[in-house]
Amino acid sequence: MKLAFSTLGVPGVPLPEVLRLAVAHGYHGVELRAHPEEPVHPGLSPDERSDTAAAFKAAGIEILGLAGYPRVAAPGDDELVIEEIRVLVDLARDLGAPFVRVFPGGEDEDADAIAARRLGTAAEYAADLGVRILLETHDSHRTGADAIRVLGLVGHRQVGALWDVMHTWLGGEQPQETYAALSPYLGYVQVKDIASAEDSTPLALGAGVLPLADCVEVLTRHGWDGWLCWEYERRWYENAEPLPELLGGGREHLGRLLNDSA
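Above: the chain sequence. Below: its structure as tokens.
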């Protein structure tokens, strides 16, 4: 498996410093939070997109994906959500990123059908550009069982799943159950750690309660060789310890888990 971290953990940090951190601590890739307050977002010009892709290539670091914010199951106009996804897919294509992340955001009993309809339409566009749209286990669809209700309806290879280990755990799902549900669709896995179900302040990997060892063991046992991405939510918890101080230890912890599960 390859290791990455999300820029959600280093909010607003310039790309040269992000790349320096990735290289210094032995990460293979970076997940870019695609938001206007970050260096990479859909408003970048063509030249800025080219420069960003070139900087990653020169550093030998891959752009794992773009963490976007479309809420595909939310009430409202389909076309607005679909266009939001298309804009992200365009940016991913220009940067050479294989994935874009979307959220569920459902609010009623029609959420599954709404999400499937929008994702199915967006999938055709994404297929032409070679980008895969990943529905994260989050909010209204926090477990693998929830996510596959939507993914099964979509039935398109360009739409898959992003497994956030915190949300599936909070939803009461065991890692083996999540993997069994998501394995046909799995794009990559977001790892993290927290103190408890009541306190989701981000912690160093291995310092909290999330079943990271079980998750890695399940993935290894099934021969999965994709990405583990550390999503440290510093943007939402400004009193959390700065991520740069934790990256080395996090890389070592994931390496131990991978060795132990081999």
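The CA atoms of residues 215 and 256 lie 13 Å apart.
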